[in-house]
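Hi V.,

You were right to ask for the full record rather than a summary. Here it is.
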Amino acid sequence: MSEDDAIKVAMAAIWERSRDVILGRVAVLEGAVLSLLAGDLAPDSRRHAEREAHKLAGTVGTFGFWDASKLAHEAEELLAGSEPISPADVMRLSHLSVQLRRQLERSAEEANASAEATADEADGPRPKLVVIGESQEFRDRMVSEARSIGVEVIGVEAANDAMGVLAAANAVVVDLAAPGAGSGFLEQLHATHPTLPVVVISSGDVFQDRVDAARRGGRGFLQTPVRPAQIFDVLRDALVVSRDDKPTIVAVDDDPTVLAVMDDLLGPTGARVVKCAEPLRALSFLVEHAPDLVILDVDMPELNGIELCRVLRNDPRWASVPILFLTAQVDAENVTRMFEAGADDFVGKPVLGPELVARVRNRLERTRMLRLAADVDSLTGVATRRRGIEVLDRYFRLAQRQRQPISIAAIDIDHFKQVNDRHGHLVGDMVLRRVAGLLAGFFRGEDIVARWGGEEFVVGMYAMPADAAQRRLETALATLRDEVFEAGDSTLSVAFSAGVAEFPKDGDEWTALYRVADAALAQAKATGRNRIIRAGAEQPTGGTD
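Predicted structure:
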């Protein structure tokens, strides 16, 4: 059986065990629809139905039911807020609940076949996190939280259930309270998947548990109760910078024998190795493949490795790419020449596989961390402006090809300067982190939430019309209004204002769309703040100061 087939079999088995719980959530939606039709849906029941739709949207895609996930997203949006649900939206909810049940009563095999077809059209695979935990509630919370950073969670109850899906995982969370999840399982996990990041959760601060986790390659150790955000903080480098995007190594060596063994030696790093046997063609290889690491032989004809290293370091495109030398001459003079030319590291010949793998993995990990620093805002945990622009560029190209709408929201925290002036920057930082986490939690994994600068955020929502985006923002704003922040001996509350614009109605490229959304934000702040304005709308929505 192939690895892919084994994963499908394992996921089908997990689906069969989870099916009743998931269909029970559909039943909650059906009950809410019946109450709406009768005109007596209580606010608590509406909130419960909204939460169940939220859980459905985050869970069923894991099993291949991507269409059902989209239906659940739409049901969640219709149930959000406190305004009366219109008769047309009630009928739409009724249709959604019928379609959800119809789709989720299909077999897991059918769903996986559908998922494969969908994956071919997707913009790229999501990082996968396997969560082994006895608590269904904990697994559901992990699924919900993961959506905000574009991570797919595969939740299983027992350690044995995880074995078939670990090959596809980017990271693993192991609750030691789960059946079979003891030190023996951790040892087996480390032996079969030595590079897989693992976070261990324990119900007590038992020092031996910490030692066992560290010995078996654990990336982190957390004590219950654990919030999902704590886990994603530990695993951010493994999940936000997806390991599905394989790093690329360009190896330049005139010896075909050395190049021939590079793939086998570097296989454990998960990297793609591009081999160049002609030093004079090295620059064209770098331009074509944009490597994360360059390996150079020192002794080559026409252009030796040290000369080539100087050429690369003089070019801004390659000035910061790690360079590792292979050399048979490890005397002090030659080593000095390599480092003076700009080398980051070297390995002596004859090359020993474990030493080369360790040094290459070290350099690739550092590159990954530098990329993470450029992609994730260190204070708030959401995307940086640079990363936001990069994702929005990609989304707009995709939207133009697929004729899908995109909404952009420009968001600013009201009176934020007063928070810093009155309560200090530490409290201001706490407010920024909370607002960022709130926004990330209210939007989908495929959306991009970026800190644009200071107290301003931008959210890009692929395939979401502005009306739906506005409803989500209104729900987030209502939640933020109720949030109370501790500030020494006092407390404070904050809110935000926002402007929303939609492609292609309000602009034909993302930069124009952002200008429209930013203008709507300025209008919101000029008319009392604490408002959300849809670009082109006659009346702003939201409260006033």
